Amino acid sequence: MDEKKSPLSDLMNSTMEKVSQMVDTNTIVGEPISTPDGVTLIPISKVTFGFGSGGGDYGKSQPKENFGGGSGAGVKIDPVAFLVIKDGTTRVLPVAVPPVGTVDRIVEMVPDVLDRVEKYFDKKKEKEID
């Protein structure tokens, strides 16, 4: 059974292509961030998305001239945690603030996360020395 090409299917395909461009693995598992003291941070996010399409075909004799349609999509990104890698040890550092979903808030949190990571490893070293 051949799938007929229609303006609605073209609209839905176009919407799904755009959503897949926005949501890829780099959105969920971010690019590693390396610090001068040898700590690597990898941001982990939760991605939620949805889309909808609809349309009508109002004149069977000339469907291209009478088609009406629309589509929409939304993406929400919530920071969840950071994978912290130092000296071959990997830890999960959950994000303590409520998820906000904007890149600006994540960027604001990076210095605080780095400070927390440094304190964690400093405390671990002190325990090993004692």
From TrEMBL:
This is GerW family sporulation protein.
